[in-house]
Design a protein that fits this description.
Elements lengths: L4 E3 L11 E10 L17 E8 L5 E2 L2 E3 L2 H5 L9 H18 L7 E5 L5 H8 L3 E6 L2 H9 L4 E3 L19 E5 L8 H11 L6 E6 L2 H7 L11 E2 L2 H10 L2 E5 L13 E7 L20 H27 L4 E4 L3 H9 L6 E6 L7 E2 L6 E4 L2 H4 L4 E4 L5 H7 L1
Parallel strand pairs: 6-7, 6-9, 7-8, 9-10, 14-15, 14-18, 15-17
Antiparallel strand pairs: 1-5, 2-3, 3-4, 4-11, 10-13, 12-13, 16-17
Helix pairs in contact: 2-3
Length: 392
Amino acid sequence: MNFEIRKFSTCRICLSKKLSNILLLKNMPLTDEFVTKDKIGTEFLLDINIVICKDCLTVQTQQNINTKDYYKDYQYSVRSSIMASTYMDAVSCEIKKKYFSGKKSLKVLEIGSGDGRQLQTFKKLGCDILGYEPSAFLSDIANKNGINTIHGFFDDSSINKLPKEFKSVDILLLTYTFDHLPDPVSFLRTSKQILNDKSGLIFIEVHDLEKIFNRREYCLFEHEHSIYLTRATAQALMDKFEYYVINFDIVPENIRRANSLIFIATPKDSVFSYQRLDNIELLEYRKISFYKGQANKIRNAIENIDKFLEMRIRQRKKVAGYGSGGRGVMSLAAIKNTSMLQYLVDKNPKGKSIYTPKSNVPVFSIDKIKEDPVDEVIVFSYGYMNEIQEEL
C-alpha cells in the first residue's frame, strides 16, 4: 500500500518554528498493517521523530501519512472486553448525571465512533446519537447494531454531511480520536460550529504524555498519532480556542483504560464555564532537558526488553507475547530480538496466517497457547491484565 506523506516544519498548534527533537524511532510501521508470509518485507516503514514546540510545549510528530485507504479496513474493537464496557457505561452515566440530569433530550455526536459501543451507552440513556467513523468495516457493524453512523473522515466539510437535527449537538465525543486527527486545530475550529455554545460539552480522551514518560510507553509513539498532551498542554490548547477545561476526573482512574488522559471542556460563555479549572503547572515539562532525559530512559527500556529476551533464551525458556494491538506491534518494532518470541496471541486477531509488520512475529488466537505451550508470556495489552490472566 502506498501512502502520501506530508512533512511539517512548524508546530501543528501554534505554527512556531522553534522545534526541538526529542526521540527518534527508526523504521517504524503502521500499527494495523499486518502481512501474510509472502508479503513480509513490503510493509510501510518510516522513522518516527518526536519533537516539542518550545513556544506552546506541545509534543508532536512532524509528518502526516494519508491513511484514508488504510482505515477503510480498520477492525480494532474493544466490544468484547468487560473492562472496556464498564468504562464506557461509566462515562455516559457520569456525564449525564453530572451535567444533564434534568435534560431529557440530548444530542450526542461521536467522532471516530468505531463499532458504536460508546454511543450505545448514551442511546440506552435516551440520548439521540450519531457516529462518524472512517472504517467501513466498523461503520457497517455499528449501523447493523442500530447505531446510526456516517462512514468517512471528519474534516471541515463534514458539517454538510450531518443531518439537520445534528447541526447543533450537546455533547461531542472523541475517545482516542483527537490525537489521531492530522489537523487538531482545524477540528477545534469546526467543533465550535456544531457544539451548543450555551450548554455544550466536548469530551476528549487521548494518550497521556505524563503516563507515557512515567511508564516508558514508547509503543504509543505512532505514525497514526499527531500530538501528545499533558493536562497542562490540554488546558492551554482548549483555552486557545475559547474552551474551558472543567473536568479531568469524570471517571475514576481504576476503571480507565491503560493510558488515558480524559478532559471535558465547554465553550467559554456556556452555563458550565464557571467550573473552569485552575491552570495546572508542570514545571519540569517546561524544560527541554527534561524531555531529553525521558528519551534516554525510553532507549534504556527498549534495550532492557532485548536483554530480558536474551536472558530467557539462555535459560532455555520459551516466551510468547500477548496483544496484537498498537502496543504489541510498536513495542516489537523497536526491539532487535523479536525472533526469540515463539509467537504473539490475541483474543481477536485481525486474521489468520498473519505476521506483525516489521518484527514479523506470527499472530494467533489465544488457543495457540494450549496447542504450543510456552514458559512465559509478555503482556503488551497490560491495561486488560486481569481479563488476560483469566483467559490464560
